Amino acid sequence: xxxxxxxxxxxxVGSEFSEEPMLMVRQKTRxxxxxxxxxxxxxxxxxxxxxxxxxxxxxxxxxxxxxxxYVRFGSNTTxxxxxxxxxxxxxxxxxxxFVDIGPVFExxxxxxxxxxxxxxxxxxxxxxxxxxxxFHIVRKKWxxxxxxGKVLYEFAVEQAQALGWELNMDLSGHRVSDFPHxxxxxxxxxxxxxxPSRLLWVLEIHIRHPKLSYGAFFEDMLLEDxxxx
Length: 229
Prior knowledge:
By secondary structure, this protein is α+β, with helices and mostly antiparallel strands. It is built from five helices and ten strands, in the order αααββββββααββββ.
């Protein structure tokens, strides 16, 4: 199969897909991520934060989630997508957490994640910032030279190591569209041999400390610089 034909097949969208509504869903998703984080505070157990996240999503008229709601505290921030959190983890005064949600609004898929730090741990703060930094380093490579999904994640591994972190390749980007994108392609962006198109793919960056039990996550659409101003 030619790369052109493969890209056409793997980037199909349905009748509900259009640019402006997808951008609105993206922004709504990002706003909710920060709303969830604002409700989290030291002393809370992770399970309660997940319930708060679900309440906030329901209040925002989420039709359903196309993946589970993840709010990870402390050592659970090293867990990969789909892995169960260790139960009863409490958010400490000096701690790290991330939010990862995949809501469906008006038949369109949102997906995003971000990391938040409590207290004064400088290394945790750097981890959170480096997840965002690495996202933009990789995104700008996509924007400047049209790299394939495979090349982008090979580059991401190298750049994460240069920053002193390990990149979790179990979280390596994927399609989004009108629900369900999985009917077209549910594999990782890291496997594709073409340059992913804007608005149709999310770039995921999950880094972990090489020795300590914490990590950071950032996820957003592949889009041009003006969407991140």
